[in-house]
Amino acid sequence: MNRLTRITAILIQLQSKKVVTAKEIAERFEISLRTVYRDIKTLQEAGVPIGSENGVGYFIVDGYRLPPISLTEEEANSLIASEIFIKNQGDKSLSKNFNSLLFKIKATLKNFQKDNLELLSNRTINFRKGDIIESNWLSDIQNAISAKTQVNISYNSLYKEELTKRNIEPQAIYFTNNVWIVIAFCHLRDELREFRLDRIIHLNSTLLPFEKQNDFSLQEYFESFQT
Q1: CATH number, domain 3-60
Q2: What residue stretches are annotated with the HTH deoR-type domain (predicted)?
Q3: CATH code reported for the domain at 138-223
Q4: How do residues 154-195 score in pLDDT, each as one tens digit?
């Protein structure tokens, strides 16, 4: 990758997150921290409003936006693998949102890229194990995690086969064995619990902020099962 291409890619990376560390940039492009500093300085001298905070990282000043970005052939092709996975992951809300996104991205592609994507789509398949387990709540759960708001759910327990109503504070989600799982603080049980999204019968989003759990760490959560 030549330097101009790398600097452009760094600018895109800076716009992908609120704050990006020099280490993240160095690891992505396999360059030294000194090279990162030099590339950031080049962008700043070119007029890009990049701020920095010692010990935190770099950020783009609010209000600055890149012009529309064209996708490379390889980037466009990667959409197919994502589409195949999402079609088979089971949650209808995620599939709906991704399809909407995909239409918008495809609308920006050149005609030959659209033809190539159609060809790849017809020649890519995912042999999944087991049946698709459907759910329809992932989008609502994601919104609750990012907004730090509680949700009300009617939950059908897998083991006791009983229906309970609960207030939960969603903290994180993961996908395993064809099932989406939400890790949440359960007000009914007064502790962190895991809930299968396909066992949620009904869900209501609320504007109530988290009351119990504001310092959750997904890494520490899974590490606790290994000790």
Answers
A1: 1.10.10.10
A2: 3-58
A3: 2.30.30
A4: 999 877 778 999 999 999 999 988 899 999 999 999 999 999
